[in-house]
Design the sequence.
């Protein structure tokens, strides 16, 4: 079937013989009158932090530290609302890259190290071996949406007050994959993560703490202020906790990287934020893992091409390994990890940075470093937790990156003066449920990807989160991660379909891709 042109329609929908609807559509930009934008920018200037993240007393009073429109329209129109903080805090030396105690001392044979001295933490959960983890990325926006996501992660817990004791319905751990806005200043950590109320808002936003702990890795935004807010304010507030007292950690997180493990799995949190710092550019795009981190992976964690540990490996990073949205891929740190893995080892990799939820096929990345190692992985982007998005861009590299699904559902954004018809994408989070398998090759990990829902009145709510996708994972006898089942639960999730059509049937000299609704 060939078409020469399609005129005056927004979408082309084809229905196949098996009743699958194929929808071809194009990206839409949001066009707003310049007078309205100029007026909004002028009002925004009065709300910018003028000194160390503090807004002037004359700022309009808000419910939360930030509003989504502040973040969103500054991104779209190049009006960097964090310009003042960036210029005041960016130039100079980065915070010291901290390491574990075991890395600072000469190895002592027979010495027993504590978990917080090695960075390798044992998962603790229910008596039957079940461990529940709630995961978010790009969450630290300090907005209503971020507050609702935090509450949803904790099964509806009211986080306007300091957490006290754990309850059975809380996840055992919470994990953040980085980005605290605007630039990760100490005051922004306090207002957007630690629940401290700024003078211009009714309340701060609090990062949720799991029954037994909470761990984080930094993104690029924390390094815009050279990492001092992250290392000196956020890390001391997270780590290992006693369920009887969640007011402060029994051992705070010492560094920006770690391992959380059980008998079947190892979750490895990688710091890709530290090397994203660039003194003269906004970001360094050739990100490498710091030498201290690489040394720790080799000597403490024990990663090597010859390793005999057959547990499944899950890597967390802030920055993406691949992107269907034409983002520049970060090839350096994936190549570093590939050099530490046995030949053919398949891993699961989750990241943020892009403010969306997307799923990729199992695939292989060829590396260019001397080792010649390839990285075989399943990829998931979970950067939809806090920063608002218009969800307007189409995945131009869907076929090239083997995109499976992505969430581009929209809801109407009420009560805004900028664009009454504005629609935003849904914010959400992921959950991981580790279980003890009967056999080593049985399913041992269940994952769910969820977003906020809407009340009947169209307002966002943390109640009854919308489940988009459920997954079941196992580990084979060689330590390869195996996707046993991927179940798209929500019918509005968008699926990428890649067709093999010969070049003489194509108008353009490229492979075709369409979207299934």
Sequence:
């Amino acid at each position: 079937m060939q078409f020469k042109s399609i005129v005056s329609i927004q979408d082309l929908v084809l229905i196949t013989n098996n009743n699958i609807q194929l929808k071809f559509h194009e990206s839409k930009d949001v066009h707003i009158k310049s007078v309205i934008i100029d007026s909004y920018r002028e009002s925004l200037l009065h709300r910018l932090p003028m000194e160390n993240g503090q807004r002037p007393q004359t700022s309009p009073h808000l419910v939360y530290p930030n509003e989504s429109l502040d973040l969103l329209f500054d991104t779209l129109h190049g009006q960097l609302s964090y310009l003042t903080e960036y210029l005041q805090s960016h130039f100079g030396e980065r915070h010291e890259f901290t390491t574990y105690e075991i890395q600072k001392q000469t190895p002592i044979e027979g010495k027993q190290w504590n978990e917080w001295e090695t960075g390798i933490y044992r998962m603790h959960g229910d008596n039957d071996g079940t461990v529940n983890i709630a995961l978010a990325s790009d969450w630290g926006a300090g907005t209503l949406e971020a507050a609702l996501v935090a509450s949803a992660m904790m099964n509806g817990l009211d986080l306007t007050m300091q957490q006290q004791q754990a309850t059975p319905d809380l996840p055992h751990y919470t994990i953040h994959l980085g980005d605290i806005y605007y630039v990760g200043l100490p005051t922004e950590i306090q207002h957007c993560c630690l629940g401290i109320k700024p003078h211009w808002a009714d309340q701060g936003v609090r990062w949720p703490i799991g029954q037994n702990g909470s761990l984080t890795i930094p993104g690029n935004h924390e390094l815009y202020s050279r990492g001092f807010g992250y290392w000196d304010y956020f890390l001391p507030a997270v780590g290992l906790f006693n369920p009887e007292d969640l007011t402060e950690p029994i051992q705070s997180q010492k560094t920006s990287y770690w391992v959380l493990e059980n008998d079947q799995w190892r979750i490895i949190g990688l710091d890709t934020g530290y090397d994203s710092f660039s003194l003269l550019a906004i970001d360094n795009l050739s990100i490498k893992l710091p030498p201290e981190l690489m040394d720790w992976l080799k000597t403490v964690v024990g990663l090597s091409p010859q390793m005999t540990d057959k547990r499944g490996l899950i890597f967390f990073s802030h920055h993406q390994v691949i992107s269907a949205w034409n983002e520049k891929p970060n090839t350096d740190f994936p190549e570093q990890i590939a050099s530490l893995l046995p030949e053919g080892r398949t891993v699961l990799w989750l990241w943020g940075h892009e403010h969306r939820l997307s799923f990729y096929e199992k695939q292989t990345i060829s590396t260019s470093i001397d080792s010649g190692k390839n990285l075989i992985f399943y990829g998931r982007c979970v950067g939809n937790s806090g920063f608002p998005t218009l969800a307007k861009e189409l995945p131009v590299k869907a076929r090239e990156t083997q995109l499976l699904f992505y969430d581009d559902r929209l809801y109407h954004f009420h009560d805004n003066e900028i664009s009454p018809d504005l629609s935003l994408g849904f914010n959400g989070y992921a959950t991981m449920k580790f279980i003890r398998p009967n056999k080593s090759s049985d399913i041992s990990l269940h994952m769910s990807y969820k977003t906020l829902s809407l009340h009947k009145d169209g307002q966002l709510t943390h109640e009854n989160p919308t489940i988009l996708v459920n997954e079941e994972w196992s580990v084979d006898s060689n330590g390869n991660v195996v996707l046993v089942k991927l179940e798209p639960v929500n019918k509005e999730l968008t699926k990428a379909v890649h067709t093999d059509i010969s070049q003489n049937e194509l108008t353009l000299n490229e492979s075709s891709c369409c979207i299934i609704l």
